[in-house]
Amino acid sequence: MLTRHSRLRNLAIGAAPVVALLAVACFAPLPFAVAQPGPTANVLGNDEGKPVITISGAPTRPTTGQLRMTTIVATGPNQDVGISDVVDGWFRTDRAVMPRDSVYPGGGSEKEISAHNQAQMKQSQDAASVAALGYLGLSPDKVKVELHLADVGGPSAGLLFTLGIIDKLNGNGSGEDLTGGRTIAGTGTISDSGDVGAVGGVALKTQAAARDGATVFLVPKAECSDAESELPKGLRLVPVTTLKGAVSALRALQKGDPVPSC
């Protein structure tokens, strides 16, 4: 039979490996990234002193509203994330803990990841031009669109680029701003044919949008529940699946007609 002193000593000896494991876990890097709301940019405005959207071969119109594309920023692919970072992220609404592979699916070095993101951005810009001109019935052989936005990668600005091109060329079809003078934000990929795709991180992007003055947020319909989870007060969600649907929703907002909701 163990004496009380012996039991306490054995307990302490038995607990030592557990304490050691916890200590290692607190300092060991984990396969996660921590993301937070990033900057937004008005695609109808300028970036680094240069228009985000430049169009030649067709008349353009001045605009007064804003179309703000949204971003998230995350810890780098080679940046250590410890258990304290993960726990902190779980308990904050302005942080999200995400598997590192979901943020950087291709892996690789920071240089390789940056190149991949820039390639996705270029593809998104090309698709936005094709989708916008196709929607307006304009020939890409005659109308040229140049898009410029520094330090942003990935495909998630596609929808907002497309709407910005349409607003500069045609507005809502009656000479008025597509935005109705509002600050509209949103996210979503775009295909050549005008389909809107999901992007991820929408709960953080809605926070970035509200922070920068948006009152309406265009969200891929498949991500409605994520967008609603941490929706800032005063920000209205408008779900979209196609470019045509997004334009129709913005026109309905101007007229005070019913608009889809999540």
Can you characterise this structure?
Helix content is 40%, strand content 21%. The chain has helices spanning 4-27, 83-90, 100-103, 110-136, 158-169, 202-211, 224-229, 243-255, and strands spanning 32-42, 46-47, 50-51, 53-56, 66-74, 96-99, 144-147, 183-186, 189-190, 196-197, 216-220, 236-240. Helix 4 (110-136) runs parallel beside helix 5. It has a 6-stranded mixed beta sheet. A two-stranded antiparallel ribbon has the order 2-3. Strands 4-7 form a two-stranded antiparallel ribbon. 37% of the residues are buried. By secondary structure, the protein is α/β, with parallel strands linked by helices. It has one domain: Ribosomal Protein S5, domain 2 (2-Layer Sandwich). The protein has 8 helices and 12 strands. The protein is globular and about 55 Å long.
Please state the overall shape, judged from the principal axes of the Cα atoms.
globular
> How helix-rich are the residues, as a percent range?
25-40%
Largest sheet: 6 strands, mixed
As for the CATH topology, it is Ribosomal Protein S5, domain 2
SSE run: HEEEEEHEHHEHEEEHEHEH
Chain oligomer state: single chain
Let me know the average pLDDT. Answer: 84
Question: How many strand elements?
Answer: 12
Global Rg: 23 Å
Classification by helices and strands: alpha/beta
Tally of distinct domains:
1
CATH architecture: 2-Layer Sandwich
The stretches of 5 or more residues where confidence is low (pLDDT under 50) are 1-28
